[in-house]
Specification:
The chain is 41% helix and 6% strand. The protein is mainly α.
Length: 181
């Protein structure tokens, strides 16, 4: 038999009267207040291993208006209370990598690391050339290096020119890198 002084209607809470001792009630409007943070963790710690998740969620006040247990809200509150939902900095990422990601974008840095390695990241700026199509990169390279102002009526196969430069350059996920850094 339950030792509670008050015997609520069990249908109000979706549980038997003994669970009332674990519930926190708002005395003015008789609504259940869901526990959060350290209070929730302390309440869960009170239970032994024989208490079900349903009983724990009910005792912590995670019930919907229809009396059913709100498992999603309960588990979300537990995750937040335990600090698993906190954004954290990547302990593996050093300042150089963070700066490169900010300046060049995650895609370029990830492509570089995937092809070479994170240990080679110090050479990223030497290797990085462009974030454009290979044909456009080659056209600008030829115009800049050879001082050519090619008139628009001249047709050059820039794709073939790119293929001729593939021993020096590589295209990775839409980013052009110099291979001989």
């Amino acid at each position: 038999m339950c030792q509670s002084e008050k015997w609520p209607n069990p249908l109000d809470f979706g549980a038997d009267p003994c669970h009332y001792t674990y519930m926190i009630k708002n005395e003015t409007d008789m609504t259940t207040t869901a526990l959060t943070g350290d209070v929730l963790l302390a309440k869960i710690a009170e239970f032994d291993s024989t208490v079900t998740v349903t009983e724990k969620a009910t005792a912590a006040g995670y019930q919907k208006d229809n009396g059913k247990v709100d498992y999603v809200a309960f588990y979300t509150a537990l995750i937040e209370a335990k600090g698993f939902n906190e954004p954290t900095e990547d302990p593996e990422m050093d300042e150089n990598e963070a700066e490169l990601r900010e300046r060049y974008g995650d895609g370029a840095v990830d492509a570089f690391i995937e092809y070479w390695s994170i240990e080679d990241l110090e050479y990223f700026e030497e290797a990085y050339q462009s974030a454009e199509r290979p044909e456009d990169f080659v056209r600008e390279l030829v115009e800049d290096c050879f001082g050519l102002d090619i008139p628009p009526f001249v047709s050059i196969d820039w794709r073939e020119t790119w293929e001729n430069l593939r021993y020096d350059y590589i295209e990775l996920s839409g980013y052009i890198f110099l291979q001989n850094w």
